[in-house]
Amino acid sequence: MIEAKNLKKVYRTGELDLEVIKDFSLKIDKGEFISLIGPSGSGKSTVLNMLGCLDTPTSGSLNINGEEITTFDKTKLANFRGEHIGFIFQSFNLIPVLSVYENIEYPLIMIQNLPEDERKRRVLNLLEEVDMIDQKDKFPDQISGGQQQRVAIARALVTKPQIVFADEPTANLDSKTANAVIELMKKIQKEHNTTFIFATHDEKIVSKVNRLISIVDGNIEEDRRV
Ligand code: ADP
Ligand code: MG
Q1: How much is the pLDDT for 110?
Q2: CA dihedral sign, ordered 41, 47, 50, 56
Q3: Distances (CA, A) of 121 to 14, 34, 170, 177
C-alpha cells in the first residue's frame, strides 16, 4: 500500500544544502504496526512527513494506494491526505478553542457530502472508542495529556484513514498513560486493520510493533520483523 523508492530529502537552509535523507526505499503493507527508530536528528520525522504527505521528497518515487503522489500539486496532496491519512503528534496539536467533540469532528468538516447525522455518529463512536464520551464538552486545557492524546487519536481516525502516522506520540506522556495510549492504537489496528507507522525511541512502542526500521544518517540501517 506504500512503496517508497529512492527517496531523497534535501533541506535548503540559506547557503547550505542539508541532505537529510539520502536513498530511502521501503514497502509497507496494509495493517502493519511498524516503527522508525534511530538517534535524534537521524531523519525519522523527515521520512514520516514525506510518507504521510505533509512534506514532499526532493526526488524519488512514492506510491500510496496505487497513486504516484510525487506528481500531485499542493491541493491534490492535501485532499489525498485528508482522505487516506491520519496524523498523531508528540504535542497533541489540538485546537484550543474547540471542545473535545469539535476537535474530533474538525477533519470531517473538510469532507464534502458527508451527511450531518453520519458526522455525528462517527464522532460519538470514536468518543466511545477512546473512552472520552463523558469529557466531550471540555476544552483541551481542561483535560490531561493522556486524554488529549486520546482525543488526537480519535481525530486522526475519524476520516477512516487506511494509514496513521504517529511521530513520538508517547514522548509527552508518563509511562502508564503511554502504555494505555499504545494499547488503544494496537486495538484499533487489530479491529480495523489500520496501518500504523511510528517514529519513536520509546521502548514501550518498540516492544509492541511487528517491524522496526532503523535509520542512521538518512539511510535505512536495518529492516527487521519482530
Ligand atoms: P529525527 O526526527 O530523527 O530527530 P528529523 O527528521 O527531525 O530527525 O531531522 C533530521 C535532520 O534534518 C536534522 O539535522 C534536522 O536539524 C534537519 N531538519 C529537519 N527539518 C528541517 C527543516 N525544515 N529545515 C532544515 N533542516 C531540517
Ligand atoms: Mg523527530
Answers
A1: 80
A2: positive
A3: 49, 30, 28, 27
Give the span between the Cα atoms of 86 and 169, in whole angstroms: 13
* Beta-sheet pairing, 16-28 with 2-13: antiparallel
Ligand 1 site, CB within 6 A: 11, 13, 18, 20, 38, 40-46, 199
Q: Residue 169: which CATH number?
A: 3.40.50.300
For residue 40, count CB atoms less than 10 angstroms from its CB and return exposed for 0-12, middle for 13-18, buried for 19 or more: exposed
Pocket test of ligand 1: the residue of 44, 46, 89 to mutate, having most ligand atoms within 8 Å of its CB, is: 46
pLDDT digits (tens, 9 = 90+) for 41-63: 999 999 999 999 999 999 999 99
How far does residue 169's CA lie from ligand 1's centre (Å)? 17
Nearest ligand, measured from the Cα of 51: 1
Give the range of the structural domain holding residue 29, as residue numbers without chain letter. Answer: 2-225
- Provide the number of structural domains found in the chain: 1
Cell of 53: 504527505
